[in-house]
Amino acid sequence: RPASSVTIPPPACMLRPLEAPFRYLFGPGPSNVPPRVLAAGGRPIIGHLHPEMYEIMNDIKKGIQYAFQTQNNMTLSMSGSGHAAMECAVFNTVEPGESVLVAINGIWGERVAEIAERMGAKVHTIVKTPGAYFSNQEIEQALAKHKPVLFFLTHGESSAGLAHPVDGIGDLCRKHNCLFLVDSVASLGAAPLYMDQQNIDILYTGSQKALNAPPGTAPISFNERACEKMFNRKTKPVSYLLDMTHLSNYWGNDGKPARMYHHTGPVSGFFALRESLAILAEKGLERSWQEHRELAEYLWKGLEDLGLKLFIKDKDLRLPSVTTIAIPEGYDWREMLAYIMKHHQMEMTGGLGPSIGMVMRVGLMGYNCKKPNADMALNALADALRNCKKSKA
Ligand code: PMP
Predict the structure, then answer these.
(1) 6 is a domain residue
(2) Is 111 annotated in some ligand binding site?
(3) How many Å lie between the centroid of ligand 1 and the Cα of residue 248?
(4) CATH number, position 181
(5) Most Cβ neighbours (<10 Å): which of 59, 74, 324, 364?
(6) Given pLDDT bands bounded at 50, 70 and 90, which one contains residue 392?
(7) In a 10 Å sphere around its CB, with 0-12 CB exposed, 13-18 middle and 19+ buried, how is residue 196 labelled?
(8) Of the candidates 156, 214, 218, 210, which has an alpha carbon nearest to the alpha carbon of residue 366?
(9) pLDDT tens per residue across span 48-107
(10) By alpha-carbon position, which residue is closest to atom 9 of ligand 1?
């Protein structure tokens, strides 16, 4: 019998208007999106294969090259969040059975190790507690021992609040015939990073942190060494959607005269990303780095004045975009964060992965990187310290 009647009624919630409250997004991301970027994302969409869209994608590519400080032709944005870039990097440059080395000092290394394991790589790890960093000597020893084709490091470890030193590691990876993959999702635009000068072979970031675009797009760039490896593989990457052979054509990077349909890119997301990259270009990277550092120092001082302890002791290893506070003795961090959300409409968060229960995180990124916001965050924390109950223990 053919189906003839609708038996599932329209859900009541769908007959109510959308409700999304205003929040101060002072956690590790997403961060608040400036009106200019929101407006760009709200423009009428055009087709993903229209010539004007190609122009916009070309602009995005140039904007990413500036933000990453690279001349790499193989530069594009993923149609997806930071995780899409993580998977794209690993899936395309590693073949099943090949060896990968992952530095784990927080959640992001854990994630990449799992991604590599799922696609059949032989995963080796070097592991430290959240907030600790790896010396170049330790990295070189592991490179020599495991002979990986890819080494992964998180520049801005947002779960621990660490800005990992990068100098010299790219050279070690070259010496050991390995690609150097760096995650800058939480640090791009907030802390200095120079893809070409630091010999980073693959670099990615996200749209929703210091770039202040909505979540859902993720810039990524591959240099010649990485292209050499990924376009001379014996097996096809496990993901069709993330296959760089197709993506490089979609972004006009493969030298072919025509761009073919591969998937429908997030047109509004690309409009917004273009605008956020334009804001960074207008401001200038150095100024952006400086503003983040200066505001972070102001925030750190304010936190210490409240009697709070910073999780990363060495100032020069602290991530300017995401500050980690050691949980104050006797307080329940969940209660404090809930209090701040309820009374200040402000998001701050706890730890993530291995740093859960160790830290509370405050992020002031890009558009949010302003003194009055730091004052508001400090005021909210002071209020929570006064009003949340302190255990006697
Ligand atoms: N890497 C780092 C350092 C991050 O902070 C995040 C997001 N918190 C990611 C990767 C993953 O990005 P997304 O949530 O956009 O997938």
Answers:
(1) no
(2) no
(3) 23
(4) 3.40.640.10
(5) 364
(6) low
(7) middle
(8) 210
(9) 999 999 999 999 999 999 999 999 999 999 999 999 999 999 999 999 999 999 999 999
(10) 82
Q: What is the mean pLDDT of residues 388-393?
A: 72
Cα-to-centroid distance, 330 and ligand 1 (Å):
30
Residues 298 and 375 in one domain: yes
Q: Could you list the residue range(s) of the whole structural domain that residue 324 is in? A: 24-30+285-387
Distance 322 CA to ligand 1 centre (A): 12
Contacts of 320 (CB under 8 A, 6+ apart): 163, 190, 191, 289, 292, 293, 295, 296
Strand partners, 219: 77
Share of the chain above pLDDT 90, in %: 98
**Cα–Cα distance list, 272 to 56, 160, 258 (Å):** 11, 29, 25
- pTM of this prediction? 0.97
Indicate the number of domains in the chain: 2
**Which atom of ligand 1 is nearest the CA belonging to 216?**
15
Give the C-alpha separation, 93 to 150, whole Å: 8
**To which residue do tokens 């990457």 refer?**
237
Residue 14 belongs to some domain of the structure: no
**Distance from the CA of 185 to the center of ligand 1, in angstroms?**
6
What is the predicted pLDDT for the residue at 393?
Answer: 52
Q: What is the pLDDT of residues 345-383, one digit of tens each?
A: 999 999 999 999 999 999 999 999 999 999 999 999 999
Task: Indicate the residue among 265, 281, 297 that finishes a domain.
Answer: 281
Task: State whether 325 and 359 are in the same domain.
Answer: yes
Same domain flag for 227 and 320: no
Residue 13 alpha carbon to ligand 1 centre in Å: 31
Which strands form 349-350's sheet, in the order they lie side by side? 322-326, 359-363, 349-350
Ligand 1 atom index nearest CA of 208:
15
- Ligand 1 centroid to Cα of residue 104, in Å, is 15
pLDDT for 278 equals 98
Q: What digits encode the pLDDT tens for the residues 304-352? A: 999 999 999 999 999 999 999 999 999 999 999 999 999 999 999 999 9
User: Domain ends where: 281, 303, 318?
Assistant: 281
Please state the atom number of ligand 1 nearest to the C-alpha of residue 85.
16
User: Quick one: which atom of ligand 1 is closest to the CA of 184?
Assistant: 3
Pocket test for ligand 1, best of 108, 111, 211 (most atoms within 8 A of CB): 108
Bridge partners for 360 per DSSP: 325, 350
